[in-house]
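Researcher: Structure prediction, please.
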Amino acid sequence: MRPGWTWLSDALDVPFLVVDNKRDIRHINKHAQALFSLDKKRVKGFAGKSLLAITRNKQLDEIAKKAIRSGQAGPISIIIRSTKDRTYEVRAVSSGSDSSSLVALFFSDLTDIEHLRTVRTDFVANVSHELRTPLASIRALAETLNYGAINDPVMSERFLGTIIKEVDRLVRLSEDLLLLTRAESTVRSLGHFDLRDVVQDVYDRLASVADRRGVHYKLSLPESYVFICADYSELDQVVFNLIDNGIKYTSQGGSVHVTCAQVGQDATLSIADTGIGMLVEDTERIFERFWRADRARKMVNDQGSTTSGTGLGLSIVKHIVEANMGTITVKSELGVGSTFTVRLPISEPEPYAVDPDPKDE
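Model: Predicted structure follows.
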């Protein structure tokens, strides 16, 4: 490629390279250099070397060969393996059919699009699975009752009770799916309020649950205001989910400590429990939709049955926190406990600002 065009190819926001009709490198822009982890100091030395030797990718060599024969080729999807595998769509275009023709290869990064496709596919599959189990149970129980079990008072009472539990499970799933949809949307009702008010309200609402499970329950609030600008109802959901989880996965005699404070320019909410804890690999997946650790699935609740949940709660929490310009982290040790920490930017209200707490409406 002529030197005058080098600046233009480097200005392209995509990897781009040029080969001759022998498929030897004639030009490679800075994005392509980074893509193939090429040493910038040695880039000039790559000119004249084969595309296959430089990229070590047979698919690229084949698409260049096809473009030399037919004028253009692609698009094809390839995976470039480096420190982090990425998926690219590649097109090849030839400048002509004579011996001096060149072939340009353009790369479009599809990694994020492919990730979204995978997330969507997994989400649909997970929703289908979560719906199928209770629906199959309800159908089986209803058929049994229809075939005569309804006339047995003991059996009918037990079966109907199970049906009600499965319906409740479906209701919880539908409610969580609606919450997740809302959390992922861009529409929210922002207002200035004191985070302490939300924390205190949720703490009081869950006090009876902690008492019933025999969990030591503690709240620490600062004396001064902790103002934030966020969606009040969404933050209520965040605080409720985190404290409820702390209580749910802590056995009798354990403790849950809720702390609200201002640290620098951040409002912080911390929920520390002495519950079942998690492995390190679990903490890396805990915010994924429908994911629940095996120990969490087997945890027994205060009614003597395993804890129920849709696996969407922490995913909802993460979406809400990030949508309100915050972050959430977790530290956990298996058998010792977990600490979830939410950080949100402090935002002082305007003079005479109206409290957005929906309870006052």
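Model: The two ends are 69 Å apart (CA to CA).
Researcher: Thanks, that helps.
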